[in-house]
């Protein structure tokens, strides 16, 4: 329902029946057909992937690190991606104009973001394989995030206003502008990450007892930890590459779900986070469209504007944080 | 004694425990030879820092031994996979749980993880075993309560039920009586004695409750600076082992009452 409403709302309002007609190909109004199939439907599908994927990777990180403040980005994925994008957008003027030719293409940003997050993540993984303590991985991830943020700052300092603007626009996050080809690639990575998360459900539940208990229940800690980290990287990494750094969803959705369902059992939480993530981001996106107006607000602003009060309200109402 | 009761569940041969780094080996205790039989309740006692935790961590394969051999059910500990070990050995630790948002039933059910499928679904027989464990520990009234609502004593019982549901021959508990009042200390240890007798499981626990352990255990493992001895409590008393447990300047062991006295 939210899905249909999301497609229906935009600078031109399209009635529900017309949307269904478009899906089954009996739509007479060609411009509506075009708007829906080439613009709104891809955007709604992207939204679902982004919302559920970030929610689930947030849940994985919070359980793995047994820390309610963890989110999908504690492993340095976003900062790596933004470093990659910053180098492509702003580095060109510093490293000479050779790169300028490929800058225009959208894929170059996607590839830069992917490479950036992959490299930072790889470094975090290599360093963290040397430490036995899971908490140390958290700190290492945050440290690498700071390093990349610093590099981005240095780059910004030497950049022109236009380049800065372009970079900031990427930083707002965007669900639209994805072609069907791009969605296909994103969906493939997303489904792989989702499968790995489902395989990890049993491990995640035992991790709630702490690593020593999990180990005594026959869980191979190092191997499962790697599996969970790879799942998160696939989900959060691909989403950040295609939609930019979408804030807040990854941190907030697991909390909202835990408060509503009042359980820590991942067999319930995983599907519930999937649903909540998808629904909330569709709602946020519908609002960001500012229905019947020409303006579209940055999705990042809306997720935080709507999500933060929900989390605060739930915490105050229940007076107790569920974890 | 019948043959079944002589069955050796845990055995160590010339075991040396401690920590090793690239530079040097830090030996905590050596020449440890203990044999634990089926259905026995065994207390592990010794002063703070003597290496009780190190011994338990080594026996449970959390930490590697320096030398010697450990056999569980006559099979070398090194040859166990994580999963096989989980079916032979269950733990109750002192660390607090990161999440307490489970019901008691859910927490006990986690003990069945080594036996459940990849998704962790419980079968009919799993549910029966869980309910039986809850019944044996006498926590049926707590079954649907959340763990954060429980007192320390109740939570300790739930953790023991979880270990019981794991259905292993050997249960090892690390200081199960810390944070508990005198009544609950006695209650938990009495419960362990009952369990060892009824379920024929071998239960090893470390504790500072020497008086209680002397009264309730079938066997004690006593760690001192010089050696590690294991025997029945009355034999240990007559051998005077407890006299050497602590420095003699403050407390002495009274052999008649089987407890320690402060020097007046």
From TrEMBL, chain A:
Residue spans crossing the bilayer: 44-61, 73-103, 109-128, 135-158, 183-205, 226-256, 268-288, 295-316
Biological processes annotated in GO: siderophore-iron import into cell
GO cellular component: plasma membrane
tRNA processing keyword on record: no
Keyword line: Cell membrane, Membrane, Transmembrane, Transmembrane helix, Transport
Bilayer disposition of the protein: Multi-pass membrane protein
Localization per record: Cell membrane
GO MF annotation, one: transmembrane transporter activity
InterPro entries (alphabetical): ABC_BtuC-like, ABC_transptr_permease_BtuC
Matches recorded under Pfam families: FecCD
Family from the record: Belongs to the binding-protein-dependent transport system permease family. FecCD subfamily.
Name this protein carries in UniProt: Iron ABC transporter permease
The species this protein was found in: Seonamhaeicola maritimus
Lineage, broadest ranks: Bacteria, Pseudomonadati, Bacteroidota, Flavobacteriia, Flavobacteriales
From TrEMBL, chain B:
Gene3D superfamilies: P-loop containing nucleotide triphosphate hydrolases
InterPro entries in UniProt: AAA+_ATPase, ABC_transporter-like_ATP-bd, Metal_Ion_Import_ABC, P-loop_NTPase
Record-linked CDD domains: ABC_Iron-Siderophores_B12_Hemin
Keyword field contains Transmembrane: no
The ABC transporter domain, residue ranges: 10-250
Keyword Nucleotide-binding: yes
Alphabetically ordered keywords of this record: ATP-binding, Nucleotide-binding, Transport
Matching PROSITE patterns: ABC_TRANSPORTER_2
GO MF annotation list: ATP binding; ATP hydrolysis activity
Record-linked PANTHER family: IRON ABC TRANSPORTER, ATP-BINDING PROTEIN, METAL TRANSPORT SYSTEM ATP-BINDING PROTEIN TM_0124-RELATED
Name of the protein in its database record: ABC transporter ATP-binding protein
